[in-house]
Design goal:
The protein has about 280 residues and is an all-alpha fold. It has a single domain, classed as Alpha Horseshoe (Serine Threonine Protein Phosphatase 5, Tetratricopeptide repeat), CATH 1.25.40.10. The longest helix has 17 residues. It is elongated.
């Protein structure tokens, strides 16, 4: 499991989709930059010391699925993508995806194992590749996440994956590529939270290169509204506070950590801890 101290303030992982209102897997998942932004190191790529054939066999079989998990818990729009599979395979894939969603926050490695088991049963469905990418992202396996997100896009994913792809480029050591993606025509079409997610990633890429003034410029345009609330606002304010801190503006940073904490309804950041550190 990735140490929260190493999580990045990057793009917003999409939910691993389940039926809304049925508990954990139906709610939105976020990348929760609890200690992220400028000056925060990324987690190392996961090590794979076991025999490749053993890993492949285990991945194909997948971990056991709790009996309480049912295929009907998967969101209808995702279940509709599984209609090309025979019923038995579709049900197993659906249950693995629901299990992945339930485990994503508490045990991302187990979530990844379930998502990979779904992929081994059918790797040509965009939603499945996207689910693997999300779980890999949570595990800090940026290379695998990048590969899966790209595959999902080729297969016609309807999700907005560009900020996630850009953040994975940062994770594999290519911040310049992340900046290029943030400047692309596709990025210019982003709006709302998706646009803010790209701002966070682009600013982080600038910070990776030590260009904190440029990171500040990215985060400041358009100007931030400290009255906003929600996960994306909390993470945007958090990234802004971290950039201020990197520039030596401690008092201003403290104020924006306060704004981040106020916006953070779901507890996706550790802004309150940062306030205690700086107060």
């Amino acid at each position: 499991m990735v140490d929260d101290n190493n999580r990045e303030a990057g793009g917003r992982p999409l939910r691993l989709p389940a039926e809304p209102g049925r508990g954990g897997p139906g709610r939105q998942k976020t990348s929760a930059p609890r200690r992220s932004g400028p000056g925060r190191a990324r987690a190392a790529q996961p090590r794979r010391d076991s025999d490749p054939s053993d890993r492949d066999t285990a991945a194909r079989q997948g971990p056991p699925i709790p009996l309480s998990i049912e295929a009907k818990q998967l969101a209808p729009e995702i279940r509709s993508e599984l209609t090309t599979l025979d019923k038995s395979t579709a049900d197993t894939v659906a249950r693995h995806l629901v299990a992945a969603g339930e485990l994503l926050d508490t045990d991302p490695q187990a979530a990844l194992a379930h998502a990979q088991a779904a992929r081994h049963r059918s790797g040509r469905i965009a939603a499945i590749r996207e689910a693997v990418g999300i779980a890999a992202y949570y595990c800090g396996d940026w290379a695998q996440a990048l590969s899966e997100f790209r595959a999902a896009r080729r297969m016609g994913s309807k999700s907005q994956l560009l900020p996630l792809i850009a953040d994975c480029e940062r994770g594999v050591g290519r911040p310049e590529r992340a900046i290029e993606l943030a400047r692309s025509a596709e990025a210019s079409q982003l709006a709302g939270d998706d646009a803010d997610e790209m701002r966070i990633v682009a600013a982080g890429a600038r910070a990776d290169l030590g260009h904190f003034d440029q990171a500040m410029a990215v985060l400041s345009s358009p100007p931030l509204d400290p009255t906003r609330t929600g996960d994306t606002a909390a993470r945007l304010f958090y990234a802004y506070a971290e950039t201020l801190l990197a520039l030596g503006r401690t008092d201003d940073a403290l104020q924006w950590f306060v704004h981040s904490a106020a916006a953070d309804i779901d507890g996706v950041t550790d802004a309150e801890d940062r306030i205690d550190e700086l107060a």
